[in-house]
Amino acid sequence: MCLGVPGKVLAVDGLVATVDFFGVTKTLRLDIVDEKVAVGDYVLNHVGFAIRRIPPDEAAETLKLFEELIASTASGDLMAEDVRGEIAAARARKGEG
Amino acid sequence: MAGPGERIGLRHGAGGRAMRELVEEVFASLGDEVDGIGLSALDDGAALRLGDRFLVLTTDSHVVHPIFFPGGDIGRLAVCGTVNDLAVMGATEPLGLTCAVVIEEGFLRADLERIRDSMRAACAEAGTTVVTGDTKVMGRGELDGIIINTAGVALCDRVVTDAGLEVGDRIIVSGTLGDHGLAVMTRRRDLRLEGDLASDVAPVNGLVRAALKAAGEDLVAMKDPTRGGLSSALHEMAHKARVGIVIEEARLPIAPAVRAAGEILGIDPLVVANEGKAVLGVRPRAAERVLAALREHPLGRSAAIVGTCIAERPGNLILDTGLGKRLVAELDGEPLPRIC
Amino acid sequence: MADLEEELRQLKFRDPERARALARALEREVKAIGRAPVSIMHVCGSHEQSIARFGLRATFPAELEVVMGPGCPVCVTDMPEVDEAVALGLSGHRIATYGDMLKVPGTARSLADAKAEGAKVEVVYSVEQAVELAQAYPAEEVVFFASGFETTAVATAAILVRGVPENFSVLSAHKYIPPAMEIVAEMPGNRIEGFLAAGHAAAITGAAVFEPFVERHRLPVVVGGFEPLDVLAALLKLVELVRAGRAEVANMYPRVVTREGNRAAQEKLWRVFKPTGGRWRGIAHIPNGNLRLRDEFARVDARRRFAIDVASLQERAPSPLAERCICGDIMAGLRRPTDCELFGTSCRPESPVGACMVSSEGSCRIWHTYGGIPDLKEVG
């Protein structure tokens, strides 16, 4: 497994995409990614297959999630903390599909 | 320690620990003591006292594949490798190089001429020339393409070894790291990577001359980080001087494409070869001066002060990632790409 | 060329300032639990790699114990499985394998040993390359020794669904992680209070795959990514859940993982493979822990295409060194690499005794690579 640096799709030809990772390009197969992949999309690579298309705004969303988590754990008020924790957990679950 | 029944493996040529152990155990006894720096120092070259100066001498065999790679070829590598070994001993004006070739039957003459042209250009950049050579041909399949051995000789007043570091000294690299090693690695067809990576192969004697001029005796240790990369070079320097070295990841100059290739392949740019760089150990008061001198040189624009020598953990190389610290492994053999 | 936005985005997940904020919050949460150690387990070699590579353990509070479990698919591939590949190689077939498997010891030999004896063993970087080998050598049988967890198994499945040449077959050593978590959670003496699950496997299976585990064992599971911020945030979430006594599944890698996962990939995976019980090296029998080819794919199943004779390979007793190897305990998270008497002495990457030292995902190999001491707080 790798740390999974996402790459940017430069070209799509049927089930094969040409993907750029900071100036190094690799071809990936699209057989298992479950969304349509287009030029300009970011994808995650695993053993030569794209396993996920990463929505472009997800980085900002994730950082926001981290910030909420820090805030929710910082409070000493147990009740409020519980509520904040629920909100953070619900947002985390909501973040998917 | 391995016994006589052991067989030599590829790791023994990779520039890391296995190679060091092989040289120490098998070859070191070939060198009696000399007046100057001889085999026992296992430095980049030898320095023989000649009156009030030193005759600096080095030799290298070059077996790189592919023979022609982005940014250079085996000829350029051969000339620069030898010029650079002399330079990092403090001898920046080579008197002349030898060039001995062993060629496989069937090798294209046009390729040979291309290599020769490349060598001539590299010599011109370094301000030197080839003065003697040798030519052999072996049967098809008896070697892979071509092997070039170059030796170089120069005079200098003061030898700079790789063993002179002390606690507090600063470590400077003359430019970006990992370029050659990753450029060659991405060329391997089985890895299926295309990229703009190019080797950094170049003669650094001009750069070193500038550094010596700026620092004088405050430049206390030098090495060229070829096989095994910055990691091997610093491990040796730390080991010989019995100091620890801490380097800061944020300060290491690494080109984005090299970093990306390294991430994809699971290979650390710190452990792969550089062929146009020098690593310098300088006294703290000279660090900024040397950095400025390097940056004025066209090959030194990305020079950086990357670390410091410490008393703790002698012989070790520590990386401060900005998030935490860890040890940098001393490479054992060829780095193999991870599946990704 | 390089997209500036993308460059910035990448750096954001390694940003030291955010990392420090997360580390401080982590310390607060752990200390608020008020006892030590707080033990959590991760089950992914890449998580250990990330932790070691970025020196993260130096940022963890002393009371937090982050243990690596059986997260190295190569390490848990049992000796008889390696023997099968070796036997096929020695009978003259061309074996394609991922690089990590090459030096893993079988009962008596590794694939590297077989290669030195003349077997045709080739390292590939993708299952596609293995198929290309079969196309390049139409007169030979090419067997792909398929190792890796479910994320990698999906690639194998995709290729088989697409169709492969007549002379191509698969020797499946693929493993499935969730059942192993069950077994580890049930081990006597186990003090693990929460699990960090691998983000890329969950990208395929979905975070929901851990819900039955959480129900049964009342332990929280957090799905985490691999950048330093991802790891710290996932640990923080996990400790928060431990502290609050909440047995839930939380997804801290929403940019890659969803609750349902990648349905198309799952469909291919389970069309081709069935979960089967089997031994994981050094640990135990894991019900449903191995992925074997279904009957519909019998034609490409090396175990059914060939009569594999491993008897002669298993005659030799394991070496005395092998008997002192504690990889099993290390993989179950019960002991650490530095607890092993062989670590760094008789067992090193160039001369490995156990599988944990061979694979780049193995905890012993990772600890050895980073100097055997993953925490350098005291260095100036």
Number of domains of chain A: 2
Major β-sheet strand ordering of chain A: 3-2-1-4-5
The quaternary organization reads as heterotrimer
Query: Any idea of the CATH class of the largest domain in chain A?
Result: Mainly Beta
Mean pLDDT of chain B: 91
CATH architecture classification name of the largest domain in chain A? Roll
Largest interface: A-C, 45 and 69 residues
Distance between the termini of chain A: 24 Å
Q: Could you walk me through the main structural features you see in this protein, from its secondary elements to its overall organization?
A:
The complex is a heterotrimer of chains A (97), B (340) and C (380). With 97 residues, chain A is of the alpha+beta class. In chain A, 35% of the residues lie in helices and 31% in strands. Chain C is α/β, with parallel strands linked by helices and 380 residues long. Helices cover 40% and strands 16% of the residues of chain C. Chain C is built from 17 helices and eleven strands. Chain C has helices at 4-12, 16-33, 45-53, 79-90, 111-116, 127-136, 150-162, 177-186, 199-205, 211-217, 228-244, 263-272, 302-305, 320-323, 327-331, 355-358, 363-369; strands spanning 38-42, 64-68, 94-98, 121-124, 142-146, 168-172, 194-198, 221-224, 249-251, 273-280, 284-293. In chain C, the strands form three sheets. Chain C has a five-stranded parallel beta sheet with strand order 2-1-7-8-9. In chain C, helix 2 (16-33) packs parallel to helix 11 and helix 7 (150-162) packs across helix 12. The mean pLDDT of chain C is 89. Chains in contact: A-B, A-C, B-C. Chains A and B meet through strand 3 of A and strand 10 and helix 7 of B.
What's the gist of this structure?
The complex is a heterotrimer of chains A (97), B (340) and C (380). Chain A is of the alpha+beta class and 97 residues long. Helix content of chain A is 35%, strand content 31%.
Please describe the structure with a list of short key phrases separated by commas or semicolons.
heterotrimer, A: 97 residues, alpha+beta, SH3 type barrels, 2 domains, 2 helices, 5 strands, 35% helix, elongated, C: 380 residues, alpha/beta, Rossmann fold, five-stranded parallel β-sheet, four-stranded parallel β-sheet, 11 strands, 40% helix, 16% strand, globular
